[in-house]
Amino acid sequence: MNRRTLLTSALLFFASLLLPQLSIAEDKASSKKTKKARILFLTQSKGFRHGSVNRRKNKLAPAEIAMTALGKKTGLFDIDCTQDASTAITAENLKKYDIVMFYTTGVLPISDENVKAFQSWLKKKGNGYIGFHSATDTYRTKDKKHKWYWDISGGTFNGHPWNAGNNVTIHVHDPKHPAMKVFGKEFKFKDEIYQYNNWVPKNVRVLMSLDMAKNNPKRPYHVPVAWCRKYGDGKIFANNLGHNEGTWKNETFLKSTIGAIKWVLNMEEGDATPNPEVSKKWHEKSIKDTEEAKKKK
Known about the structure:
Layout: H1 3-34, E1 37-42, H2 62-74, E2 77-82, H3 85-88, H4 91-94, E3 99-102, H5 112-122, E4 128-132, H6 147-153, E5 156-157, E6 167-172, E7 186-190, E8 196-197, E9 205-210, E10 224-231, E11 234-239, H7 251-264, H8 276-296
């Protein structure tokens, strides 16, 4: 056996030793990629109860049914739905989850101790909050004690001039964001749209807004529809849409929700840099659009 043959045999031998290790590493990496996230969906209503989160005959509500089906369809996550914040939002229970979704109203029964636990949990990398529709109608008080939640939700409900039957035109400011890609630069949608108090542009990245020139009624101020932000090392995404039960069967809306989940889980990149200049620009545009509409009457 010549030297070249010996060298080849030796290389093949050592390669055979390495291959099982490489295979195990690849399997682990693959397993890690396909590991399901855990989501907690809180749909408790201590104020107005929306049809989308109304459990009829002790069955899951439309929004809960939609999210449960979405988890099964995509294989992306498992979800637990609850209407009891007092037992769901605790330091111990939060350890089970990567994302907490809120579709809530009113002052929730979360103790001061568990408020701190929730804030601490949310600041950890890989964790996130996703708020749908009336998540912003939660802790709608004048009590500064609730500022912790206003900071998380991004805004507080202050009426809905655009009702459930309105077909609104929405402009997308960041169509590259995973939660926005499916919408394109502009789209029409039938749903109830809120206006807000406690909106702090320097804290958030507004992702889409009402285009006042193309909507009625018109209002002389910026009306954001979705936004995101970092919270410590965690992430926050909020979407006004979701009032109508039909929204929870809308494929575009559900694809946007998948994008938001992937963004929170760091599976897809998306900018969360605050863009207060966008809010300022669209506030000024809304004033102009409203004034021009008045002149035409």
